[in-house]
Automatic annotation (TrEMBL):
Keyword annotations of the record: Methyltransferase, Restriction system, S-adenosyl-L-methionine, Transferase
EC number assigned by the record: 2.1.1.37
Pfam families attached to this UniProt entry: DNA_methylase (PF00145)
Entry-linked PROSITE patterns: C5_MTASE_1, SAM_MT_C5
Species per Swiss-Prot/TrEMBL record: Marivirga tractuosa (strain ATCC 23168 / DSM 4126 / NBRC 15989 / NCIMB 1408 / VKM B-1430 / H-43)
Annotated GO MF terms: DNA (cytosine-5-)-methyltransferase activity
Active site residues of this protein: 169
EC category: transferase
Name this protein carries in UniProt: Cytosine-specific methyltransferase
Homology family: Belongs to the class I-like SAM-binding methyltransferase superfamily. C5-methyltransferase family.
Keyword Ligase tagged: no
A GO BP entry: methylation
Domain of life: Bacteria
Amino acid sequence: MKPEERINLKDFFEKSSISKIVGESEYGNAVLTHYLHNNKNGVSSFYKNDARKYLETILRHLKPSNVMDPIDFKEIEDILNIDDIARIPFPSPNKPKFKFIDLFAGIGGFRIAMQNLGGKCIFTSEWDSKAKVTYRANFGEEPFGDITKEETKSYIPDNFDLLCAGFPCQAFSIAGRRGGFEDTRGTLFFDVAEIIRRKKPKAIFLENVKGLRGHDKGKTLATILNVLRNELGYYVPEPEIINAKDYGVPQKRERIFIVGFRKDLKIETFEYPEPSKSPVSFEDVKEEEPVSVKYYLSNTYLNTLKKHKARHLGKGNGFGYAVIADDEIANSVVCGGMGRERNLVLDHRITDYTPVTHIKGEVNREGIRKMTPREWARLQGFPDNFLIPVADASAYKQFGNSVAVPAIQATAEKIIEIIT
């Protein structure tokens, strides 16, 4: 096919006619982009046949005059203009040191950390459709969907080195009588454990909320560790509570890290990374230029927050909004409840107080505003070239659900030193 006749890869994602013609395909774009990312590293066999079938279906509608029956082409790259892959913000390393998979990937916090260390991602899954948009924009790859489905698991390649999973912190109780593999059924951890059992990676790296340690009086974590250690055969040192503020970002974000190594590797010790000595503060991530007035609270809403906090203080509770000074460290960014209101900031650089959105009352004159999505991204350690292609509401949710990249990377560096 002549170069000018090739189809731009972005057409598969941006033209609504594609989905109308082909119909909703849960795996089409994922299979195709995973093939394009892995067509030269020995992993393509897991994706190639289905990628061809998906491409053929689309080609018969987009370029019927150029398509014979059966379709005559040697490589998918002969049909697609894949220059888009090379222009993504975060391409895979040219000479990777290790291979990993990215489960419950969100917007790719684990992936950035691993790629910074020389890792090649060969499979990724994420069910949230808007998170997929952000992931695809930055990595040029569509994540597979629901990892609880057997069809999704069937696409996971063999022979990767590291399994990464920030599995969701759903409320579950798995303190059964045996406290083993069967007791985790019905939880997302079971799906992670099942993949570990089938694929037997050299190492695993799991992340969850701090509260997992004390959930169900410690029985939940004990069950998880029992499965990893005794039923799956991994050396798992005691999990560590890691605080993001100790690894270069000004955010108090405590998460539990669980690391494991396949026992046949005979690894008997693991040291979590030492905290960084570098001081951090919100000023390090604050927007350099004045931000839109839309981020400033209305005086009506600000007064409501003040009254709400006063009521809780009167009851002896500490709940309420918080204003972070430039020289302070932010509270944990979370996607629900008072997530944004717990991280308000002072910014007096605004000059035009004319509202640009529908608000009750006027814009407050105290200089109190919400952090921007880019500031949240920086609090999580995402570089400034990370694209944010979604609306603010989705962006806050995505960064709130993500991992703190520097803390992940510091720990992963220790893992990679051992397994490579």
